[in-house]
Amino acid sequence: MVIDTKMLGLLLRDSDIYSILEKALHGDRLGFKDINYLMKSQDTHLIGLVADRIRKEIVGDTVTFIPNQILNYTNICTVRCDFCAFYRNSGDEDSYTLNPSQVIDRAVKAWSQYNTKQVLIQGGVNPEISIEYYEEIFHGIKEKTKNLAIHGLSTSEIEFISKKERVSIKEVLQRLQNSGLDSIPGAGGEILVDRIRKKIGRRLSSVNGWLRVMEEAHKLNIPTSATMMYGHIESETDRAKHLLTIRELQKKTGGFMAFIGWNFESGSTKLEQDGLVTHSSGGMELLRIVAAARIVFRELIRNIQSSWLTNSISMAQIALINGANDWGGTLYDEEVIPATGKQVRDIKTQEILHSIKNMNRPIAERDNCYKILRYL
Fold first, then answer.
1. Which residues are within 8 A (CB) of 248 and not within 5 positions of it... i.e. 6 or more apart?
2. Which is it for the CA torsion 232, 185, 150, 374, positive or negative?
3. Residue 368 lies in a domain
4. 253 domain residue, yes or no
5. In total, how many domains does the chain have?
6. C-alpha span between 187 and 31 (Å, rounded)
7. Phi and psi (nearest 5°) for 259?
8. Burial annotation 259-274 (CB, 10 A radius, 16+ → b, else e)
9. What is residue 192's predicted lDDT score, i.e. its pLDDT?
């Protein structure tokens, strides 16, 4: 249903956040109180309408996606976050670490078989792995593939490499960049409120740590993503602080390419075992996060992902009419979400095309920096 300006204005006047949404439509920057009200408001549908109007003005109707592989090279991690079901201790029967040749072979196989444009490489904070391990992998992938971008490592992994090697974050990033690293995902962000991070067992990387890695990356012209893990013990106010923190860094550096919100999966986690989180948040929470992100970031972060991985294909479609413009990517080999007990199947290009075509929206394949490669 297309809502014209007059009808939207009439709907706004019946909302308790009328003045906030009016400011958003006029292009005004929202302050913390405004963002907090958005997060707490139950007018999810109306917020979504405003967000989608802004989406259309800023990025148009085209929905982008990338043929992508997620490659988890190790599940050994000494951080042991309470929200993670993926990590294992060294010596556990089901722990593993792929050697560089295995990682390279997996990336090359997906590239040759599925024409992937990006490999997202993440694992855990494994004390047995040195920076040379990553350099060998990145060099090897670049030597054996053409136009395959490496989107790699969480801020926690990067911070640990810095401590292990006793070199600065900047030097770590420079060495990884020289080896072939193209961009960095937002993993490690979770919720950018230290009080919450401590409660969910985020034992490595404070808010300032995450921001420091991201800012150093941006200074080196390494683009990154920003993320939010929501639906655990955080409040709406914590979510508002998170978005505002990201926006402030983006105003300074301009290095964030996209924002991705993903809901916490509680299965097999310590948070679930301790009774702090008993179920996943619903689809309405996803739509509120997506819409609020579009309204808060506007043109500062042009790309908002639909978060299909943790919220299903049908919810991703709805997110695309609530402010999102990017589907994310195809999926091959992801292991982190399945560790919670939630079944996540591989999703291939044709299924994405079918899902978007059902919405009568233009579709384009992009690269890892959100540059459109071709329309489909």
1. none
2. positive
3. yes
4. yes
5. 1
6. 26
7. -120, 135
8. bbbbbbbbeebbbbee
9. 97
In a domain, 47, yes or no: no
68, two tokens = 């992508």
- CA atoms of 38 and 374, how far apart (whole Å): 36
Residues 66-83 have pLDDT tens digits of: 999 999 999 998 876 666
CATH number for position 252: 3.20.20.70
- Domain assignment present for residue 17? The answer is no
Contacts of 271 (CB under 8 A, 6+ apart): 82, 83, 200, 232, 233, 264, 277
Closest listed residue to residue 221, CA positions, set 194, 189, 255, 193 = 255
CA separation for the pair 268, 364 (Å, rounded): 37
Coil, strand or helix: which one is 230? strand
Are 368 and 120 contacting, i.e. CB atoms less than 8 angstroms apart? no
Average pLDDT of 3-32? Answer: 79
Per-residue pLDDT reduced to its tens digit, 80-107 = 666 676 668 888 888 999 999 999 999 9
* CA distances from residue 315 to 42, 76, 253, 311 in whole angstroms, order as listed: 18, 32, 32, 6
Q: Which domain holds residue 108?
A: 63-375
**Helix residue spans in 254-282 (DSSP H):** 270-273
Give 47: exposed, middle or buried? Use CB within 10 Å, 0-12, 13-18, 19+: buried
Which single residue is written with the structure tokens 């993670």? 84
Please return the burial class of 372, using the count of CB atoms within 10 Å of its CB with bins 0-12, 13-18 and 19+: exposed
